[in-house]
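User: Second chain of the day. Same drill as before.
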Amino acid sequence: MRAPGFWQNPPARPGWQAYVLAPLGCLYARMTARRLRQSGMRADVPVICIGNINAGGTGKTPTAMALIALLRARGHQVHVVSRGYGGSLSGPVQVDPARHSAADVGDEPLLLALQAPTWVARDRAAGVQAAQAAGAAVVLLDDGFQNPAVVKDLSIVVVDAAQGFGNQRPIPAGPLREGLAAGLARADLVLTIGAQDLFTTPLPVPRLQGTLVPMETGMPWAGLRALAFAGIGNPAKFFATLRGLGADVVVEKPLDDHQPLTEALMARLMAEAKAASARLVTTEKDAIRLPEAFRGEVLVLPVRLQIADDTALIAALERLGL
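Assistant: Same format as last time:
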């Protein structure tokens, strides 16, 4: 489902819908706060949570990939634990890209498993225990900021630099999974992602600023006629990135986040691309969900997170002995 437009209204003018839904939003925030009072398991190794306060995609997967690379460069064996959204397996199970599909474990864990040992577990405490037993020296929790099952040693809240926290109201009155003040009080760092930096919310913790930069693949994007499709949190960002590389995006197909790429859907997209004399292009995360028959037909544009100044992040890691 797409987020309602009024969720992104300025906090000072949240819209009449937000006022009407405010009582439900307050109830949702109270339920979240009550759940978070539960005590969690403390792991034997540092646990770093990459989460968000907003519902939907904010860039957690690129953040996890960047942290994997950073921790490995610092000599640490890192494992990832994920709920496995969109997958059927409850776990704990270690993701095997040669054996599992996105339908089994979810697209994000499948992508992260190409970077580091990744575990899917609906019970996050059981997933962390499995990672520890397999030799993890540090565990990245992919999402789970509002889940109290595991004590976090470092929590990084990821937010879109342009959209921020929207109208700053809890669901369904706004985009937040909990009250903003309560969420920020548990965060250690806030990472804003995006070249268009409109973020103005005062923060009680250090802010990191990041951008998603296309990887050099040798693909000559300039002048390429493209039918671009993306089932991520903000497909418009992907389309803008392609245009920034010089591609001629003649058709944009925004899909729902994690939307299954069925053979029927891909056949329709292929036919439309052919009619427009264009190539199909998608994101790295979407490519993981492609049916086998279409993987050779779709171009993939991978991106990686670059943090402008990681001083606060490095200091936080060093406090954990990492």
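DSSP finds ten helices and 13 strands in the chain.

User: Great, on to the next one.
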